[in-house]
Amino acid sequence: METINEPMVEYGLAKHAHVGEGESGDLHMVCCNQNGVLIAVIDGIGHGEEAAEVARTAATLLRSSADEPVISLVELCHEKLKGTRGAVLSLAFISPEQKMMTWLGVGNVQGVLVRADTKKGNLQELLLLRAGVVGSKLPSLQASVLPVSHGDTVVFATDGIQNDFSMGLSARENPQRVADRILSKYRNRNDDALVLVARLTGIAP
To answer: 120 pLDDT exceeds 70?
Structure first.
């Protein structure tokens, strides 16, 4: 795969379906608009076609409502996915004008912000995940807000990737190479797996 360029990000994607399944229940979504960019990774509970359909439903809703605050987006997905097997997801909205990122995670889609300039904060910031299932049991939602800079990189990984994938991450590495390396080195073999690596390029240096 090649790095994909959007107006405000360049990103790399690596994924693998569960052995024996023709379709992955893990899905990504990147949507740029005049206000910023919404990035999300959704993991339909379980794997296979039914999990994939749940993930697609959530991704379609997120894309069509991308101007809404992230908490509202999760609540919208929760209502839409009631009666399905549900999903876990993490999402981030980046405002280039404000140079801020608001992110939120329900379930176990891990998130890491890797800073390009360590003088502006910790080298890595980890997303605080809240236990629950979107569409079934929604926890109390509270988003985190972080300052971001040109070149900072956001990484999301589903639970098909081992927890220690963030070791040694660098914002200077090509996003696609990072995604491919994480999938190759840290994928476990008992679930779908997806890694999304997005470098923030639309923020003024």
So the answer is: no
**Under a CB-based contact definition with an 8 Å cutoff, are residues 30 and 37 in contact?**
yes
Superfamily of domain 4-200: PPM-type phosphatase domain (3.60.40.10)
pLDDT at 202: 84
Cross-sheet strand order for the sheet of 4-5: 4-5, 9-16, 193-200, 153-157, 110-114, 124-126
Look at residue 73 and tell me whether its pLDDT is greater than 70.
yes
Distance separating alpha carbons of residues 63 and 69, to the nearest angstrom? 12
Residues 102 and 27: their CA atoms lie apart, in Å, by 20
**Residue 141: Cβ within 10 Å count:** 15
* Top-confidence residue, 43 or 47: 43
Q: Where are the domains of the chain?
A: 4-200
Beta strand 129-130 pairing with 100-106 = parallel
pLDDT for position 122: 67
When pLDDT is cut at 50, 70 and 90, the band that residue 108 belongs to is very high
Give the whole-angstrom CA distance, residue 161 versus residue 86: 20
Closest C-alpha to 153, from 7, 54, 12, 2: 12
pTM of the predicted model as reported, rounded to 2 decimal places: 0.92
List of E strands, the chain: 4-5, 9-16, 26-33, 36-44, 87-95, 100-106, 110-114, 124-126, 129-130, 144-147, 153-157, 193-200
